[in-house]
Specification:
- The complex is a heterotrimer of chains A (436), B (275) and C (293).
- Chain A has 2 domains: 187 residues, Periplasmic binding protein-like II (D-Maltodextrin-Binding Protein, domain 2, 3-Layer(aba) Sandwich), CATH 3.40.190; 207 residues, 3-Layer(aba) Sandwich (D-Maltodextrin-Binding Protein, domain 2), CATH 3.40.190.10.
- In chain A, helix 2 runs antiparallel to helix 15, helix 10 crosses helix 11 and helix 18 runs antiparallel to helix 19.
- Chain A has 19 helices and 12 strands.
- Helices cover 47% and strands 16% of the residues of chain A.
- In chain A, the strands form 2 sheets. In chain A, strands 1, 2, 3, 6, 7, 8, 9, 10, 11 and 12 form a 10-stranded mixed β-sheet that branches. A two-stranded antiparallel sheet of chain A has the order 4-5.
- By secondary structure, chain B is mostly helical.
- Helix content of chain B is 76%, strand content 0%.
- Chain B contains 14 helices and no strands.
- By secondary structure, chain C is mostly helical.
- In chain C, 74% of the residues lie in helices and 0% in strands.
- In chain C, helix 1 crosses helix 13.
- The relative contact order of chain C is 0.13.
- The chains are: A alpha/beta (436), B mainly alpha (275), C mainly alpha (293).
- At the B-C interface, helix 1, helix 3, helix 4, helix 5 and helix 6 of B face helix 1, helix 3, helix 4, helix 5 and helix 7 of C.
Chain lengths: 436, 275, 293
């Protein structure tokens, strides 16, 4: 109570000051100053990563064109941190008008009543804008019949491969594996052993950080979705899901083309660059870093297929928070429309390797030229045709962790894939039952 | 020399070698950090004798993350905590050492509870309190739970108790007020305790991580440890050279102070431990 | 006289008040509030919090991760405490003896204490990284099979334990060193005159005299084994499959990534109970040695 009272008192004092200032201004009859709108945007990148500079640059361009809006970007770490920090700031009553957060946080954000649907903001003319993005990238944005997120920092999983290693193993470097069978066969040829030691592995798929994401690719390639569109049911124990996990485990245990145990998300790129693995599955977000650091000839390809091709989409969407004034919402919308315009999206994609989120961005001269020079930049886009929504449910943190744990348990041999996934399904059921 | 003496010498030499080997093992991580930070990235995981030296990693780290701001935050945090601890613990320690008041023993027991239940354990509830107070993402918010330190109160109480009461009497006869007595008699005589406690407190809060991680959101408040954790977050792909350079930057002030005032540090920790 | 005693009482409380307010707000109140919260469900915007009795505790008992984490924490304690104490004693004896380059060795032992855990975890990550990490490079140079140190549930916790021992032993060494230096030098002289061997002297004379220090260090080590989780944020995030998760880390995860405050409170109650048990033990067994006059 005391705090509230003190705040009110402070507010009163400030009002008084403002009134005084206004009166003073009025007496000099100065021209009215347009109200400055301040936006605080949370952004999920590690501070200081090269991405911060790119985002800062885009934001600065925006402010130059919109002098009445000032934007403060807060770099909050990884996706998880950004969500925690933004929600915590909202709870604490600190200003935050918009944020890039995990596309899959949508149900959680809805449940926290934290965000507004874009349909209600854009008006009639805006419907066209909402339809201008790749449908696969919008799959995670739609819930309860509305659109809650605008795709921005989006990726899919692609396959990076070391062409020099392919040549050494007597494989055609222009023909990366297209199916699971080819992956295993080529993986065996690519794995280089020296007695008991493995000098180079055939393939590495990371299983820390975001194991569920990689696994979702395997599942969809096996023809299996992992959750329903309502976000209240999961299919972790379906037989095709179990088969997918069995295949992942077998790559290490039976085929010997991948190290057993888990593979670290963060250090995998280093492993690939050091030539310790011939193939890695990783986010397209790594493309620029690999391009800049690889000392060998490398290639990028779509993930191989089993029953079909496929990869989940990944990455972050823009959200607008509910606790904001109508003016701030419009300003935030303006910023988002600016950053997702074809030109800016193209610029963003070139600098980072993330997908340009709309087809017309690939028609801009800049991106056209870039793709012509560096065709791998378009692999992720081409794969969008086969992409599915990323795993997203209510209580998504818990459900995701249940699946992560199951994957790691199976990969480390602690449980059979079937048992591990049955446990994960049981846990997910327990959490999701009350959302039906 | 006798045979027994020679045998002793042999064992002694073996022991010394073991002690040195352990010391080397204990320094290995730091040595590696120096190696990776001062060499180009391609030597980060490869140890070649003639590898070229470079400072580029430091420039890179410094430009990638707002280390200057982090340093400032940590400095503000550590000094404000220390200042508050000195004042609060001096007052409370004095009260416990020299005043008889009802409920004193119970109050002292309640203070000692904090030795066991450190603020780290109560992150969830303390976070709620801070958000109610509007102190999330402020340096004050990081520091507040630590400012009344049971350890400091205990340490100063023990020290004040050893100061002869005659000194206090003498000061009183000269007309000093209670706070003057505290300031002119007790505080100067307890100087070693302040130094010892100060060093322990500074190195604790310089290195503290979990609570600052929870309570800070922005560059303007984040201390070095949290900044470093985000800087080195494996999500973004690990670049050893730059990370070790950043790590060395972050530990440099404390490490340098430690190397310069090694005896002081060691003795302070000893002193704080015996009490 | 009576007036001055009354005044003294008032002064006493006045001096104590600022510290008392902070301690009450950030130690005692949250302890009680945590217990209170553990009987309520977590509220979201759509489902307000309500009283659920022991539901959270029931959920906890059925939570496999909880049991795993408790098991890990016990193993972590059992792995770090004896080894770090034994090493600390050994270090103290060495550094206290006539060792060439004693100051340098002492510095080496003590350095980990003043480095932030977060920073050193970054460095240790390099040691443990498979294939390109230091440990694997060493194994490889001896033609031994390499290991996936942090990716193997059977060894990941041991990797964490080794790091914790490294970080803590030098800190505990200091207390032993202080105790050793406080021993009267005549003692060793007398023992030598009696013809006692060094081992005998150490076992029968020094070690018993160090008992209070050992107990003090033990209590510290036990408390630390519950709160030392910083390294997990860098090295493993508790994985694989929670094989390296510790209780406080799990609490953090539940509170700040699942946003389940009530369940986090319930877990915190367990941690508080464990700490209370330790204090009780300390009170019963040690109090005569570390007395609060």
């Amino acid at each position: 109570m005391t705090v509230g009272w003190r705040r009110r008192k402070g507010g009163g004092f400030r009002t008084l000051l403002a009134a005084g200032a206004l009166a003073a201004a009025g007496s000099f009859a100065s021209p009215p100053v347009t109200a400055q709108i301040e936006l605080t945007m949370y952004y999920p990148v590690a501070v200081g990563g090269p991405l911060t500079k790119i985002v800062d640059g885009l934001v600065a361009d925006f402010m130059e064109e919109h002098p009445d809006i000032s934007v403060k970007a807060i770099y909050a770490g990884n996706y998880n941190d950004a969500r925690i920090k933004a929600l915590a700031a909202l709870k604490a009553g600190e200003p935050a008008q918009l944020s890039v957060m995990f596309a899959i946080d949508v149900f959680e954000l809805i449940e926290q009543d934290a965000i507004v649907a874009f349909d209600d903001l854009v008006g009639e003319s805006g419907r066209e804008w909402l339809d201008s993005f790749y449908p696969a990238l919008m799959a995670n944005s739609r819930a309860l019949g509305k659109t809650w997120g605008i795709p921005f920092q989006r990726s899919t999983i692609v396959m990076y491969y070391n062409k020099d290693a392919f040549r050494e193993a007597g494989l055609d470097p222009e023909k990366p594996p297209r199916t699971w069978d080819e992956l295993v066969a080529m993986g065996k040829q690519l794995t280089e052993r020296n007695g008991d030691q493995v000098e180079r592995w055939g393939v590495m798929i990371p299983s820390t950080g975001y194991p569920y994401w990689m696994f979702q690719a395997l599942a969809i390639q096996n023809g299996q979705e992992l959750m329903n569109a309502e976000g209240n049911r999961t299919y972790f124990d379906a037989s095709a899901t179990v088969e997918a996990l069995e295949f992942w485990v077998a790559m290490g245990r039976d085929y010997g083309i991948m190290p057993e145990g888990t593979i670290e998300w963060g250090t995998l790129r280093q492993n690939f660059l050091e030539g310790k693995t011939a193939i890695m599955w990783h986010s397209t977000g790594n493309l620029t870093a690999v391009k800049n650091n690889a000392k060998f000839d490398f290639g990028v390809a779509m993930l191989p297929a089993n029953k079909r091709r496929g990869s989940p989409t990944g990455g972050g969407n823009f959200y607008i928070f509910k606790q904001t004034t109508p003016e701030e919402k419009q300003a935030a919308l303006e910023l988002i429309r600016y950053l997702t315009s074809p030109e800016k999206t193209a610029e963003w994609s070139i600098e980072t390797g993330y997908i340009a989120t709309r087809p017309d961005a690939y028609e801009t001269p800049a991106l056209k030229k870039y793709v012509a020079e560096f065709p791998y930049a378009a692999v992720a886009r081409d794969q969008l045709e086969f992409a599915v929504a990323e795993l997203s449910t209510y209580q998504t943190g818990r459900v995701r962790k249940a699946l992560d744990d199951a994957i790691q348990a199976a990969l480390t041999g602690a449980k059979s894939p079937e048992a591990a996934l049955a446990d994960a399904q049981k846990l997910a059921e327990r959490v999701l039952r009350r959302y039906r | 020399m006798t045979a027994a003496g020679r045998r002793l010498d042999f064992w002694w030499a073996l022991e010394a070698a073991a002690a040195w080997l352990l010391a080397l093992l204990w320094l290995a991580p730091l040595l590696y950090a120096f190696w990776a930070a001062f060499h180009p990235p391609e030597y980060a995981t490869r140890f070649v004798l003639g590898a070229p030296l470079t400072l580029a990693n430091f420039f890179e780290a410094w430009s990638q993350a707002p280390f200057a701001r982090y340093f400032l935050n940590t400095f503000l945090l550590v000094t404000s905590i220390l200042a508050a601890q000195f004042v609060l613990c001096t007052l409370a320690g004095y009260a416990f050492a020299r005043f008889a008041f009802p409920g004193r023993d119970l109050a002292f027991a309640l203070v000692l509870v904090q030795l066991m239940i450190m603020p780290e354990v109560l992150i969830v509830e303390n976070y709620r309190t801070m958000s109610r107070l509007g102190l999330v993402d402020t340096i004050a918010g990081i520091g507040l739970p630590y400012m009344a330190s049971a350890f400091g109160i205990f340490l100063l109480r023990q020290t004040f108790k050893t100061i002869p009461e005659e000194l206090e009497e003498a000061a009183r006869v000269e007309g000093c007020s209670m706070l003057q007595i505290l300031w002119k008699v007790y505080v100067p005589l307890a100087r070693p305790t302040y130094v010892a406690y100060g060093l322990v407190s500074v190195s604790y809060h310089w290195n503290n991580f979990l609570w600052p991680l929870v309570i800070t959101n922005s560059v303007e408040t984040r201390p070095l440890t949290v900044g470093l954790a985000i800087f080195g977050a494996p999500e973004s792909g690990v670049d050893w050279s730059v990370i070790t350079a950043g790590t060395l930057l972050a530990v440099a002030p404390l490490l340098l102070a430690f190397l310069l005032f090694q005896r002081q540090f060691v003795q302070s920790f000893m002193y704080a431990g015996i009490k | 006289m009576r007036a001055s005693r009354r005044l003294n009482q008032v002064y006493g409380w006045l001096l104590l008040t600022p510290a008392a307010i902070l301690l009450l707000s950030f130690t005692h109140y949250p302890t009680v509030a945590t217990l209170w919260q553990s009987f309520f469900s977590t509220g979201t915007a759509l489902r307000p919090s309500r009283f659920v009795g022991l539901d959270n505790y029931r959920f906890m008992l059925e939570d496999e991760i909880f049991w795993k984490v408790v098991g890990n924490n016990l193993l972590f304690a059992a792995g770090t405490i004896p080894v770090s104490i034994a090493l600390a004693l050994l270090m103290a004896v060495w550094v206290n003896g006539r060792l060439p380059g004693r100051a340098l060795v002492r510095m080496a032992y003590f350095t980990p204490t003043i480095l932030p855990m977060i920073a050193v975890a970054n460095i240790w990550l390099f040691f443990y990284t498979p294939e390109i990490g230091l440990l694997d490079q060493i194994l490889r140079s001896f033609d031994l099979p390499t290991r996936n140190w942090l990716g193997d549930p059977d060894i990941v916790l041991w990797c964490i334990i080794v790091l914790a021992v490294w970080k803590e032993a030098g800190f505990f060494m200091i207390f032993y060193l202080a105790a050793l230096q406080a021993l009267p030098p005549e003692l060793e002289e007398a023992a030598r005159l009696e013809g006692a061997s060094r081992a005998y002297y150490f076992r029968r004379v020094v070690f018993p005299l160090l008992m209070p220090t050992t107990l003090f260090v033990l209590v510290n080590a036990v408390i630390n084994s519950f709160k030392l989780v910083d390294q997990l944020f860098i090295l493993t995030k508790g994985g694989p499959d929670n094989a390296s998760a510790l209780l406080l880390y799990y609490i953090y995860e539940v509170a700040f990534s699942f946003f389940d405050d009530s369940y986090a409170a319930t877990l915190t109650v367990v941690l508080l109970a464990a700490l209370a048990l330790i204090s009780l033990g300390q009170f019963l067994f040690l109090d005569r040695r570390i007395h609060y006059r």
